[in-house]
Design a protein that fits this description.
The protein has 2 helices and 3 strands; from the N terminus they run H-H-E-E-E. By secondary structure, the protein is of the alpha+beta class. It has one domain. The protein is rod-shaped and about 100 Å long. The mean pLDDT is 85.
Length: 146
């Protein structure tokens, strides 16, 4: 091959520099893809957990208020056990997810928990959703006896 004028071929150093620049770009793209995949998975887990808490709270609000007027009323069962039993039977979380429900009767004037067995017609309901035994979302709401 004939060279024209001052043209010279690529030196070994130029080839190594070009490969290093290409490798740096390739690594940064690969890292960005990994971060994007992990972020998407995390967002999906959180969205599923939020959806489960909302569905659970809506279901609990549709249940009768846990008192003497409730057909399933049993003094030996706490509101938490009542709702937990109802929720587990009607909302089945996807594999790897667990739902924990806590219902505590509270004083409407102070919003502080009442003594065990007392209930003035309002309960603080807490729903916790775990994914792979790690707390994902906690949601609190109130259930009123209407």
């Amino acid at each position: 091959m004939k060279r024209l004028g001052n043209q010279k071929g690529l030196t070994l150093i130029e080839v190594i520099i070009a490969l290093a620049v290409f490798a740096a770009i390739a690594v940064s793209v690969f890292v960005a893809l990994i971060v994007s995949t992990r972020t998407t998975a995390s967002v999906n887990e959180n969205t599923t957990a939020e959806s489960l808490t909302r569905a659970t709270l809506e279901y609990i609000k549709s249940c009768c208020y846990y008192d003497e007027d409730c057909p399933d009323y049993d003094e030996s069962v706490s509101p938490t056990q009542y709702y937990q039993g109802k929720v587990i039977g009607n909302i089945s979380p996807p594999p790897g997810y667990e739902i924990e429900v806590t219902a505590v009767p509270i004083d409407p004037a102070t919003y502080l928990p009442l003594a065990s067995g007392d209930d003035d017609g309002i309960q603080k309901v807490t729903v916790k959703v775990y994914h792979d035994n790690e707390l994902e979302v906690t949601t609190e709401s109130y259930k009123v006896n209407r």
